[in-house]
Amino acid sequence: MRIFVCIKQVPDSAQIRVHPVTNTIMRQGVPTIINPYDLFGLEEALRLRDRFGGEVTVLSMGPPMASESLRKALGYGADRGLLLTDRFFAGSDTLATSYALSRLIEKAAEEQGMPHIVFCGKQTIDGDTAQVGPGIAQRLGLSQLTYVSAIDAVDPEQGTITVRRRADHGVQVLSSRLPAMITMLEGSNQIRRGTQNDVLRAARSDITQWNAAGVGIEDLSLCGLRGSPTVVKRVFAPSVRSEKATIVSSESGVSATASALIEAILERQPALETDLLEQASGY
Amino acid sequence: MKKELPEHFRSYKHVWVFIEFEHGRIHPVSLELLGEGRKLADKLGVELAGVLLGSGADSLDDATRNCFAYGADVVYRVEHPVLAQYRNQPYTKVMTELVEKFQPEIMLLGATVLGRDLAGSVATTLKTGLTADCTELAIDDERSLAATRPTFGGSLLCTIHTLNYRPQMATVRPRVMAMPRPEEGREGRVVVYTPELEEERIITKVLDFLPDDAAEASGLAFADIVVAGGMGLRSEENIQLVRQLASVLGGDWGGSRPLVQKGWIAADRQIGQTGKTIRPKLYIAAGISGAIQHRVGVEGADMIVAINTDPNAPIFDFAHLGVVSDAVALLPVLTEAFRQRLLVNRMAG
Ligand SMILES: Cc1cc2nc3c(=O)[nH]c(=O)nc-3n(C[C@H](O)[C@H](O)[C@H](O)COP(=O)(O)OP(=O)(O)OC[C@H]3O[C@@H](n4cnc5c(N)ncnc54)[C@H](O)[C@@H]3O)c2cc1C
Ligand SMILES: Cc1cc2nc3c(=O)[nH]c(=O)nc-3n(C[C@H](O)[C@H](O)[C@H](O)COP(=O)(O)OP(=O)(O)OC[C@H]3O[C@@H](n4cnc5c(N)ncnc54)[C@H](O)[C@@H]3O)c2cc1C
User: Fold this and answer.
1) Distance CA B205, CA B313 (A)
2) Which chain B residues contact residue A137 at CB under 8 A?
3) 20 to 30 A from A212, CA-CA: which of A19, A141, A158, B70?
């Protein structure tokens, strides 16, 4: 089976700091990781390869250093990594990103053949929009299967697939056709530890890099800031409530504090006491 | 970077809300969006429309009435057997056709599993901008939609515009906007649209639907009183302090994201941007710092009470009442004091 997995390099959110004066995000020195949601797609891809043979290709769009994330994915067992990198992609919103990635996928498909499945993460931890997967599916005409918790059956020969999809009030069992774009739900599997071999191979492998022209993008107005219909107009700190929280004093011990807090709550929200009593009488 | 809106988009008018209609009922987020859409439409002086897709005349009649009651002036009604259960392909096709034919300037969808699946496809087909998970929507001086959402990193918000494309699309998570009060008997105009759909051409089939056990689903999002804990609780064991207070108050309980990541609480108990949004009458946060991703999930509460050892914790910037104190010591005492208070009152009453 031919499987592509889109992975995004993101800042490790646990270590992001905001500049105390300018209120901007300080990216310098923040370590990067593979977007954690993408690892569920990668693991599912590796499992399918274990079963059916074939190859897993990981793809990313980003600055040259995103090749580190691709190499990391090779260390988990992916077969090859492709990076689309060009300054023209800077400032891409989700529409421009799905355009660039779908061109990268088409370029890779020219060389390897059309993938049976393209995996994306459910969402990222930085942009967090969940829009790029559906965007790619739409552009490439792939069956769109989002929030998949399990792949029940897949037949690459027949081009059929059956999945379980997490819907709002239950689970949908869906049958569909390949090629498909799948986003895996978190917790649906756990990324494996790469073998010694994989790790060694990853360290030695080259990550293939293309620029916009390399994947056949001629119209640069579809890329980056120019190709992005959304415009960020303002970044700001949330307003501080004009009055800060009234602090209930705690000088005379915990139980005095507790009583004072209850008084303060009920003084401000007298209706609560009636609500509480109604509930309590229901016991 | 201000450009003119291209000529062919100038005729785009009106505010649309995609009505999420499944298993015979409207998702509450769609009604919340009608409330919010009403404000935007009034500000622009245009109509508010609900876009309703489904099958089964009776239930669609009922849903249409509801759209009017919650503020819609117009309902675009699309009835077809292929639309009985949500599937991306036919829904994207119909929504795209509707937009091209009737040309709305703004389109809002719920940031639900269904809404997120659909919005990304529709925006890509139309090649327009889509802002995800907005917490605030407004119309600016140039009649443009200003969609505000949290940015990563913990403390900032950003306002995003779609200047040169139409419609301006945005998704909003459930419970972020207030539920409007319905006005029974309010009427409006129905526009029926008949799409060309054939089941044979739809590549994805629904083989089965396994409904969730309703009893197991947590009612956190709709609880009137919510008590939550954060890393300040220091151990998994202390989660029970939060649960006990919630239980005495007849409320529900939850926690911040790190507790989910540590495996101390289940993922459906997480409160915040990537968890549940709550709008209780009373929210008590114990040992929670108040990062922006947490804040946007609780800001709709009528009253926020924070218990935190750090007087400079950001949560005191948006809480109404605060106690600078060790939550682990205070919670059990507070629980007991509430219990006593209710007992006394009950005997008196
Ligand atoms: C704080 C913030 C808010 C933003 N808000 C918006 C917004 O409302 N609307 C908008 O259009 N843009 C927005 N953007 C821009 C958006 O984040 C970028 O377009 C980004 O390139 C992709 O979006 P995402 O991170 O949300 O990905 P998602 O759509 O959440 O990603 C889903 C999956 O797509 C794949 N994927 C995404 N990006 C890449 C990549 N570069 N390489 C490989 N695979 C990838 C991954 O598998 C990923 O798991 C925002 C950015 C930031 C930082
Ligand atoms: C994309 C993204 C999405 C996110 N989504 C969410 C989300 O949905 N929900 C969410 O909650 N977070 C979310 N986060 C994480 C968020 O940024 C914060 O990291 C998180 O909310 C912090 O949790 P906390 O307040 O429990 O822990 P901390 O920030 O560690 O704060 C602990 C607090 O407890 C106080 N404390 C310590 N000891 C005591 C004591 N004995 N008694 C009382 N107080 C004490 C401390 O002073 C401190 O203020 C998200 C982050 C990202 C990047």
Assistant:
1) 51
2) 88, 121
3) A141
Residue type, A119: F
- Confidence category of residue B55, pLDDT binned at 50, 70, 90: very high
Inter-axis angle of helices A196-204 and A67-76, nearest 10 = 150
- Cα separation, A268 vs B281, whole angstroms: 11
Burial class (CB in 10 A: 0-12, 13-18, 19+), B137: buried
CA-based angle A41:A42:A45, to the nearest 5?
85
Residue A143, beta-bridge partner list: A180
Q: Is the CB of A198 under 6 A from ligand 1?
A: no
Tell me which CATH code domain B7-201 carries: 3.40.50.620
Tens digit of each residue's pLDDT (9 = 90 or more) over A28-47: 678 899 999 999 999 999 99
Give the rounded distance of the alpha carbon of B81 from its chain centre: 28
Cis (ω within 30 of 0) for the bond into B167?
yes
Pairing mode, strands A80-84 and A208-210: parallel
In chain A, what are the domain boundaries? 2-222, 239-283
Q: Which helix (H) or strand (E) holds B94?
A: helix B88-102
When scoring A231, A241, A259 by the number of chain B Cβ atoms within 10 A, the one with the most, hence best to mutate, is A231
Q: Residue A26's closest CA among A7, A47, A12, A9?
A: A12
Identify the H or E element spanning A258: helix A254-268
Distance, CA of B72 to CA of B42 (rounded, Å):
11
B120, B203, B210 member nearest A143 (Cβ): B203
- Spacing, Cα A63 to ligand 2 middle (Å): 31
A277 closest CB neighbour out of B304, B305, B345? B345
Do residues B64 and B191 lie in contact, with contact meaning Cβ atoms separated by under 8 Å?
A: no
Architecture of B220-348 per CATH?
3-Layer(aba) Sandwich (3.40)
Beta-carbon contacts of residue B240 (< 8 Å; ≥ 6 apart):
none
Question: Where are chain B's structural domains?
Answer: 7-201, 220-348
Measured in angstroms, the CA of A220 and the nearest CA of chain B are apart by 15
Please write the tens of the pLDDT for every residue from A140-186.
999 999 999 999 999 999 999 999 999 888 899 999 999 999 999 98
CA geometry: angle B247, B248, B249, nearest 5 deg: 90
Residue % of chain B over a pLDDT of 70: 95
Task: Return the half-sphere exposure (C-beta side, CA atoms, 13 A cut-off) of residue A31.
Answer: 5
Return the CATH superfamily for domain A2-222: HUPs (3.40.50.620)
Alpha carbons A174 and A149: distance in angstroms, whole number = 12
- Rounded distance, CA A189 to CA A187, Å? 5
In the sheet with A230-236, reading across from the earlier edge strand, the strands are A230-236, B156-162, B145-151, B136-139
Distance, in Å, from the CA atom of A59 to the CA atom of A5, rounded to the nearest integer, reads 6
- Omega into A36 within 30° of 0, i.e. cis? no
Q: Which ligand is nearest to the CA of A129?
A: 1
